[in-house]
Amino acid sequence: MAHIITRACCNDAGCVPVCPVNCIHPTPDEPDYLTAEMLYIDPAGCIDCGACVDACPVGAIHADYDLPEEYARFEEINARYFTTPDRTDYEAEQATPQRRSWPDGLGRLKVAVIGSGPAALYAAEELLSQRGAEVEVDLFERLPVPWGLVRFGVAPDHQDTKAASGPFARTLRRSGCRIFLNTEVGKDLSLEELRQRYHAVIVAAGAMGDRALGVPGEDLAGSHSATELVAWYNGHPDFADREFDLGHERAVVVGNGNVALDVARVLVSEPARLERTDIADHALERLRDSKVREVVVMARRGPLEAAFTTKELLGLAELPDVDLVVDPAELDVSEAEIAALGDPASSVPAYKLQLLRELSTPTASRERRVVLKFLASPRRIEGSDRVTGIEVERNELVEADGVRRARGTGETATVEAGLVFRSVGYFGLEFPGVPFDERRGVVPNDRGRVLAAAEGEPVMGLYTAGWIKRGPSGVIGSNKRCAKETVGQLLDDWTAGRLTAPPVDDDVAELIPGRIELDGWKRIDSHESAAGKAAKRPRVKLVDVAAMVEIARA
Predict the structure, then answer these.
(1) Rounded to an integer, what distance in angstroms lies between the CA atom of residue 445 and that of residue 458?
(2) Which label site among 314, 351, 489, 501 has the fewest CB atoms less than 10 Å from its CB?
(3) For residue 464, what are the contacts with CB-CB under 8 A and spacing of at least 6?
(4) What is the 3-state secondary structure (H, E, C) of 305-353?
């Protein structure tokens, strides 16, 4: 008997230390942790103790004898990870975690964290769980509600993944932790006012911008970023008033990462399926009247380079009454090309290609469909007043410096569509008073220490974590290792005496009369949950800031 990790895996790795036989990999200390699609359980090593089940924050682990039918493929996916020899000789026992020793007389460390998403909460937890140290952490969030990416980025039909907020709620209840919601640093109080009251400030503000395609017609009506649409249907207050004309049968998504597949899945899902989620009410009403029946997801390179993960592909293929369509010619990949990527028995790209060949069809027979189109680059978005289509160029793959790159062939065609969504990456936005790398969209840093410039000196007392630190990569749990690295640098500076004592000793709360604290968030949470229960949904989200504030202060 063995246990299986399934689609909802958030890579939090909370299951790793509780496993008595070290059969869950990759661990945060292993080279492929940050690039792995998920975590996996070695079926040959698992002793069926079930300790990992209780530790998983999103309920992603099941016994093989109790595996839900929709997750049947994950038994094979877990086993495949361990088919190469270098993944079968792990030490049988976990290494003993190293404990940091604290010099006498350090006193209490005060840290401000800007943001309340995964990176911010993981950083707070890492600080507050230090044994033998006195630490106070205050989090500052400009919205009246916390959780960042978990609330506003995870697709509404992935409620199991949203359960990652459970451990974050426990962090907020820790002694020494406070959260100030409805508080915008740079407006309600300045970064300098924070730095005067804390030994250190961690900027974990995420990346809410998006990359442009850089093609003619991108500014036409009907051309949007996937970032906008995701925030709109997830009820982000800044995007609740966005308008999307869903009166067209075909939409095109440029890019084929997980966000692109999320957008396609939501657009073609039957409204009855979405009614059981926490999708924003305004989005649900618009989707009920939607005429979109086909979404073309377009990628520059081939299926072996597909950016989406295996579990997201399976989720798309399992949609009822929706065809997954791929041109067989685009899946015609030679065995030599597959072998060049490593052992086909354990290669993730090879397995995704296998699934595409197995799960897709060459033509559509159902009313709704998602078309995965490979080897195609946008050249212009067509239309005069609004989008009418997109001109694409067929690509070929060429090898350059050991990397397969897309090169245009000059052969073009037009895909008629009324909507185009660019999904080519989130992009960080500049934060007031913090150095910023405009080219990469991140805060320049060295393992979390903020630098004055890309190659500059550290700005002592200022740190960063999450997407604004490393760029938009990984999943929720990837931020845990990222935050741990940042906190490690901060604690090294503190124990070495490099962090100066705050010159101002008053309570920062006095500077922000409009703040909402934990009790206020609990009232909002209770209100949304009660409304959800009445509607037989997980929750009904509030999207109006004024309404949130009123309920928080009731």
Answers:
(1) 8
(2) 501
(3) 202, 203, 204, 434, 443, 445, 448, 450, 486
(4) HCCCCHHHHHHHHCCCCEEEEECHHHHCCCHHHHHCCCCCCCCHHHHHH
**Is pLDDT above 70 for 37?**
yes
Helix (H, G, I), strand (E, B) or coil at 188: coil
Q: Reply yes or no on whether the pLDDT at 92 is more than 50.
A: no
Q: Which two tokens stand for residue 359?
A: 């799960």
Q: What are phi and psi of 120, to 5 degrees?
A: -65, -45
Q: Is the pTM of this model over 0.85?
A: yes
Contact 300, 375 (CB under 8 A): yes
Q: Note the pLDDT of residue 95.
A: 43
Each residue's pLDDT tens digit, 515-546? 999 999 999 999 999 999 999 999 999 999 99
**Does pLDDT of 223 surpass 90?**
yes
d(CA 361, CA 13): 36
SS3 call for 52: helix
The answer to whether residues 310 and 40 touch, using CB atoms and an 8 Å cutoff, is no
pLDDT tops 60 at residue 97: no
Among 359, 365, 539, 432, residue whose Cα is nearest residue 186 = 432
**Collapsed DSSP state (helix, strand, coil) of residue 150:** helix
Cα separation, 469 vs 68, whole angstroms: 38
Contact 41, 75 (CB under 8 A): no
CATH code of 109-208+428-515, in short, is 3.40.50.720
Record: fold of 216-421:
FAD/NAD(P)-binding domain (3.50.50)
User: Which pLDDT value is given to residue 68?
Assistant: 92
| Tokens 């989620």 found at | 277
Q: Angle 469-34-113 (CA atoms, 0-180°, nearest 5)?
A: 35
Instruction: With CA atoms as reference, report the closest residue to 121 among 446, 432, 478, 479.
Output: 479
Identify the H or E element spanning 550. helix 545-552
Give the CA angle between residues 73, 74, 77 to the nearest 5°.
100
Place of tokens 């845990």: 480
Range list of β-strands (E), 219-268: 223-225, 250-254
> Whose structure tokens read 């300790």?
51
- Please choose, from the candidates 434, 473, 440, 477, the residue with its C-alpha nearest in 3D space to the C-alpha of residue 167: 477
pLDDT in tens, 235-279: 999 999 999 999 999 999 999 999 999 999 999 999 999 999 999
To the nearest 10°, the Cα dihedral for 452, 457, 459, 463?
A: 90
DSSP state of 152: H
- CATH 3.40.630.30 assigned to domain 3-87? The reply is no
- Whether 3 and 46 have beta carbons less than 8 Å apart is answered as yes
| pLDDT for the residue 87 | 66
If 0-12 CB within 10 Å is exposed, 13-18 middle and 19+ buried, where does residue 453 land?
Answer: exposed
Domain ranges of the chain: 3-87, 109-208+428-515, 216-421, 518-554
In DSSP terms, 381 is beta-bridged to 390
pLDDT at 88 over 60: no
Q: What is the mean pLDDT of the chain?
A: 93
Do 392 and 300 form a contact (C-beta atoms < 8 A)?
A: no
